[in-house]
Amino acid sequence: MDSKMSTDDPDQNATLEYFLEENDLIEVEKYTGKILVKQEWKRNMDLKFKSCVSDGPNTECATCRFIHVIIEPEWLSESVTIAMSGLSLDDFWDPMVFQRFRDSISTLAPAWKSADVHIISVKQNSEDQLYISIVVLEHGNHVVK
Fold first, then answer.
1. CATH number, domain at 138?
2. Among 39, 28, 95, which Cα is nearest to 68's?
3. Where in the sequence is the domain holding 58, given as residue range(s)?
4. Interval 135-141 mean pLDDT
5. How far apart, in whole angstroms, are the C-alpha atoms of residue 129 and residue 127?
6. If 0-12 CB within 10 Å is exposed, 13-18 middle and 19+ buried, where does residue 8 land?
7. How far apart are CA 69 and CA 59, in angstroms?
8. Contacts of 72 (CB under 8 A, 6+ apart)
9. Which residues does 140 contact at the CB level (< 8 Å), separation at least 6?
10. Which of 25, 33, 58, 87 could form a disulfide with 5 if both were Cys (CB 3.0 to 4.6 A apart)?
11. Is residue 14 domain-shared with residue 53, that is, in the same domain?
12. How far apart are CA 30 and CA 45, in angstroms?
């Protein structure tokens, strides 16, 4: 996993410190914001943690949503990729947009639930083109091929 807490501080000389609510799953490097896994998991998880960044006098906190999905090898060949224009990576990972995307895909079939929609990858090809690869599982079986 190669992930980082995103921040934007107009003061280029500020030393930022990153903090993550104590847990047994992930941690954050104090000065880089790089998210590190503490162990290997054998189950799917969708959890939320309090995360903060400080430049000394100012501290901002937010919710860090951690989603871990065990991807089966056959999912890669059975996934569907959707191209979306006018959406950035940051926009897509906004909690409300992300949930609305999963909810919208789940409305395509009566038996699908939002939790059945698994994101395999999200890549930004250009400034306004996003590619989202998904697989939908219904009772553990692939339904989008």
1. 3.30.1660
2. 39
3. 3-68
4. 74
5. 6
6. exposed
7. 31
8. none
9. none
10. 33
11. yes
12. 24
137 in Cβ contact with 90 (< 8 Å): no
Q: What's the domain count of the chain? A: 2
Biggest CA pair distance of the chain:
53
Looking at residues 63-89, what average pLDDT do you find? Answer: 86
Question: DSSP letters along 83-137, please?
Answer: EEES--HHHHHSHHHHHHHHHHHHTTSTT--GGGEEEEEEEEEETTEEEEEEEEE
Say which amino acid occupies 47. L
Q: Are residues 79 and 130 in the same domain?
A: yes
Write down which residue in 68, 99, 125 finishes a domain: 68
DSSP H or E stretch at residue 75: helix 73-78
Mean pLDDT of the chain: 86
pLDDT at position 144 is: 55
Mean pLDDT over 53-60 rounds to: 90
Who's near 17: CB < 8 A, 6+ residues apart? 30, 31, 53, 54, 55
